[in-house]
């Protein structure tokens, strides 16, 4: 294996083409420098320099070898810089799980953007999945952070949960429905129509929030067809298959034939939760949590001023 120190000596002499000036730059006496270059030449099996009492020039082999030596040293420097960033928790990989109904949230997109700008050396991986599936993925390390809508049961003591916000629910209604003519709709009116949800076995936190809302208001829930994505749920509404209750951020899905109406019940909302492992959290997880909290505070300030 080549001695990196000798490669640095070679690079310095090649830049100066003068052993005296190179020894000054390297803070090394000239005789030891000459011996180190000779040792490198012996190791390589060819001369790097043609030396006379008046000049030092690179041999053809030395000129050809120079860019390779320079590339090795540059990679070593990059590795040292990256090692420092990894040690400081500003580089690495971070896997973020999210429920599909969260993907359209401004908080989600702004947090990702802010984190990427602040930590450009972190490779972000996004993993879509229902709230329930995130629990096992967090514990076994497939994802580092989960953004969902369902509180883990008390026996999941290995997961830490932080409530970020409650997102208002709105009704997604087909444009040709009589309900579309109203400025707002009540849950009682909605309960007369098939409700499009995620599949029952999907583990959706949004489903749970909606079902609790109906139970709290002692209203019957008429199950309609189901979709595994928020986009497919909206598509079913457009097809006249029922109505849907979705987070207000879903209004960004401007699907032809679908309109959105606020609910008369102002308490109708779905939680936005962030979940992490309770033990062994990385510095990057803490950094992402900090960015989330900063974006959330900026949202709150913006709402107060508007």
From TrEMBL:
Keyword Transcription regulation: yes
PANTHER family attached to this UniProt entry: HCA OPERON TRANSCRIPTIONAL ACTIVATOR HCAR, TRANSCRIPTIONAL DUAL REGULATOR HCAR-RELATED
UniProt similarity note: Belongs to the LysR transcriptional regulatory family.
Alphabetical list of InterPro entries matching this protein: LysR_HTH_N, LysR_subst-bd, WH-like_DNA-bd_sf, WH_DNA-bd_sf
Lineage: Bacteria, Pseudomonadati, Pseudomonadota, Gammaproteobacteria, Pseudomonadales
The protein's name: LysR family transcriptional regulator
Taxonomic superkingdom: Bacteria
Record domain HTH lysR-type: where: 2-59
A GO molecular function held by the record: DNA binding
UniProt KW keywords: DNA-binding, Transcription, Transcription regulation
GO CC, any one term: protein-DNA complex
Organism from which the protein derives: Pseudomonas cremoricolorata
SUPFAM superfamilies noted in UniProt: Periplasmic binding protein-like II, Winged helix' DNA-binding domain
